[in-house]
Amino acid sequence: MSQHDKRALISLLAARSARRGSFTLASGRQSSLYIDARLTTMSPDGLALIGPLGLSALRDEHWVVDAIGGLTLGADPIAYAISYASSQTASPIRAFTVRKEAKAHGTGKLIEGPFQDGDRVAIVEDVITTGASALRAVDAVRAAGGDVLGVLALVDREEGGREALEAKGLPVTSLVTASDILAVSV
């Protein structure tokens, strides 16, 4: 992972996505730090950094995956960026998204995209707090026949989510931590 690109990603997250104050997180927890990663992950310069850094993180962990994705909406741009970054490699990675609920019409799918039964998968999470969103995606992928190799987070809030996932036998890696973001003065 390029340290220059990692520093650039931390700077973008600190400037665009991190807010200090009093917030109730999706987990229900109270926090003085809110990270809306989508403000970075849905921007051209954010995507340009996240794709190669995420691909590098997968390689550093020795996760040879066929597909990458997670719970919509936070995981989507990250998975797409990594898939795109892999397009010119010897082993392109397909991206998919996990719906929060199965479609009530059509095929009733919970997983959208070119996911296939038997795929080796990395689950993506934009911000890990408790790990609950990643676990929902893991359960959906396993139920559809996927082999989950681990969880790749854009940001680890360092509030127990990593440990909760690891306690369930899921290796976890992150591109950035909340400490990294807090260390940057905005």
Describe this structure in words.
- Helices cover 38% and strands 27% of the residues.
- It is of the alpha/beta class.
- The chain has a single domain (3-182), classed as 3-Layer(aba) Sandwich (Rossmann fold), CATH 3.40.50.
- The strands form 2 sheets. The protein has a 6-stranded mixed beta sheet with strand order 5-4-3-6-7-8, with helices on both faces.
- Helix 5 links the parallel strand 6 and strand 7 (147-156).
- Helix 1 packs across helix 3 (44-60) and helix 3 (44-60) packs across helix 4 (76-85).
CATH architecture: 3-Layer(aba) Sandwich
What sort of overall outline do the alpha carbons produce when their principal axes are compared? Answer: globular
Q: How many separate domains? A: 1
Alpha carbon gap, first and last residue: 24 Å
Number of DSSP helical runs: 7
CATH level-1 class = Alpha Beta
Walk me through the topology.
Layout: H1 3-17, E1 18-24, E2 30-35, H2 38-41, H3 44-60, E3 67-71, H4 76-85, E4 94-98, E5 111-112, E6 120-128, H5 132-143, E7 147-156, H6 161-167, E8 172-177, H7 178-182
Parallel strand pairs: 3-4, 3-6, 6-7, 7-8
Antiparallel strand pairs: 1-2, 4-5
Helix pairs in contact: 1-3, 3-4
